[in-house]
Amino acid sequence: MTPTLADLDWPLRTEHLVLRPGRVEDAEAVWPWYRLPEVQEWTTTLSPTLDDHRQRWARGLEDCVVGLCGDRVVAAGKVARGTAWSQADMAAQARGRQAELGWVLDPGVQGRGLGTEFAAALRDLAFDGLGVRRVEAQCFADNVASRRVMEKIGLRLEGVFVEESLHRSGRWLDGMSWALLEREHRARRG
């Protein structure tokens, strides 16, 4: 059986954070900072109201992980298991072998390394907890903070895609794709 986030032993602890699966009630906890313009600048979903945010949040709980500093949720992310591209006769073996990572951090705690700590924990969850062989993350090329986090946690830039991403500003922006293989992750720890 392929493990899911629900199968892991929670909570997980890093130096400054406690991680656990997201819960329905976390929607209200993250809403005050998630809706800020500086956060919405780079998120993939825009929730104009708290009710809309609650609905979107509930739909993503299967892959959701939150990071707490004390008793306050300061980070929200995803570890979404996916299927690697394969030839048709290898599809069963490719199922669930990679994961997409994503994260967002309360701007009130930025600059303290918590985003990097949280993203590294998501990476470790994917490899060590879910047993995937590859993790991926994407961002707008203009999102320098997210790019720095990807570099710091060991992901390598795999592609820059010119004007392939339509931003909610109406501008076409360059997109970036980052990834890391499990064997590379092990070698870095080595």
UniProtKB/TrEMBL annotation:
Residues 17-174 form the N-acetyltransferase domain. It comes from the Bacteria. Keywords: Acyltransferase, Transferase. Gene3D superfamilies: 3.40.630.30. Belongs to the acetyltransferase family. RimJ subfamily. PANTHER family: [RIBOSOMAL PROTEIN US5]-ALANINE N-ACETYLTRANSFERASE, GNAT FAMILY, PUTATIVE (AFU_ORTHOLOGUE AFUA_3G00765)-RELATED-RELATED. This is RimJ/RimL family protein N-acetyltransferase.
